Each structure stands twice: as C-alpha cells, then as structure tokens.
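Suppose a colleague, Dr. K., hands you the sequence of a protein chain of 310 amino acids and asks what its three-dimensional shape might be. Before reaching for any lab equipment, you can write down a predicted structure in token form. Begin with the sequence itself:
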Amino acid sequence: MTASVHYKTYDIFNYDVIIVGAGPAGFAAAHAADKYGARTLLIDREENPDWKQCINDGYDCEKSGNNYTGQEYNHGFTSLISNSGIQIAANTFVSKIEKLKTGFSLKLVSRDEIKNIKCKSLVLGCGCRELVRENEIAENLGVPFDACTHRPIVDQNCMTMLDGVFCCGKAMHVNDPADYVSESGNIAGKAAAQWVAFKNQERNMLYNHNDLIPDERFFTDITANENFLYIVPQKININNHNKKTIVYFRSKNEMCNSILTVSLDGNEIYKRIYPFLRPPETERIELDIKNMDINQTSTINISLAPAVIH
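The predicted structure, expressed as tokens, is then:
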C-alpha cells in the first residue's frame, strides 16, 4: 500500500468551512473551499483518509475515461491537499453539532482528546457507511428532509434549508456514476466558501461581489411528474441564480425513447430525448436560467414522458 501523504493537523479552533467526511465528495469539497480562500478543516474517522475504503468504482470516467476506485481517486487528491492550506482531523468523530448565532460548534472526539471547535459553514459529505449518523446530525440541527431521497432538501448550491449547512455526495442523494459524487462536492465546497465570503467581506477571499451568495435566500420549487424517482436540487435560490444549475434525477421505471422537458411558468426552456433510462442510473442536466425572470411565484416543472416518434 502506498504510504499516506503527510497532512496538516488542525491547530486552530475557528474555521470558515468544516467538511465532515473525507471520501471523494469530502475531499472535493475541501479542495474547492480552500481554493476560494476559506480556512478549511476536513474531518474523518479514518487514520489515513486518503486510503479509506470506498465501495464504488468508476471515478473520473466522465472526465478522462479512467476507471478509478474511490480509494485510488481519493489518493489522487492527496498531493493537492498536502500542498494546500487544508487542515485534517483524522481518526476523529463528530459527537455533537450545535447551531450558534453566527455559525456552528462541533465537539470532536479522537483517541487522545476531546475538542470543541467552531465554523461559519458546514458541509456534510459522508458516504454510505456513515450516512445514518450524518442523517442524525442533520435531523438534530432541524434540517428538513426530502421524502424521496431520504436526504436533506437542497438548493442549486447544495445548501440545505438551514442556512450555512451544505451536503454533497451520497449525503445528498445516491450517486451513479460515481463522478457525480465529486462534482457535488466541488459545488458544495465552493458555495460554502462563497457563503462565508459574503458574511465576512472584509477578508480577502477570491471573489468579486457578483460571485457571492447573499445571506437572504428566497426559493422557488422544482417540481417533477410521476415518472421520476427523485430530482435534486428540490429548490432554486432565486437570490443567486446567476450561473448554470445542475439537476440530477432518476427515472421511476425503465423507459425507452423518453423525452424530458423543463418549463418555467409554462414556457419550455429545455428539452432532451433519452434512448433509455433505468432507475439505478443517475442522470444529469444543466439548466441555464441565469438570464431568466424568476421570482418566488415562478414554477419550474420537469416532466418525463414517452417520446412521440414520427
């Protein structure tokens, strides 16, 4: 087994962004948050997170055609992490999280000690093995859950309905292909840094004002017809829709030659034909709604139906 890369252990007690879970989603979130100027801590129960077990393979298939296991993919992040400002709390459990007036307090338990630390934003990025525990954390914080995904309801920035709490990877929905795990981690980590930057604009984070996420959020729902197993995100923050929105979905049943249509206030804005859809396979679309007139009374509907072949 390849030797583990030396990480920077955590030595401060107040962070911008804390990520719980150092799998492919958590590593991607940490890298993104650090890249955009956030003081970042990554927490994992494993002693060597870069070689932690991951039951999936297929990482990086979409980008490069490689078929990495989760373990191999994680190890690819280690050079980025070791040369960054990210700090690591390995072999550490999160026993309690409390919402504060301006952030969150976490109680960390390791082999040697118990510590209390604080952060301004929190990213939940655990995988399958830790999912029950992570759902308990989210529920204890009062985060609303979706009845279909059995995970937190999120907006297009992977932020839950509790301000400052983000989730990604399998903490957000079941991902297949595995590439989408790290994609959502990147979205969540970057957005968490953007959220902190807006609240603390005197610090020199790497944004102009238009990139930041305002602390007031106003939502419109994304609804779907009966042919979907689920869609993610479930909501659009209309106070921050100045970029493309990625929507993940699964069909409820196997479908051949189906057409997906997205409408905004009854007007078609996106259409795509799928030769074949299967419930175990996650699909992904990008919606460019940044120049569209969306308000709290708007309706965004996604429908899936058999295509009419002429």
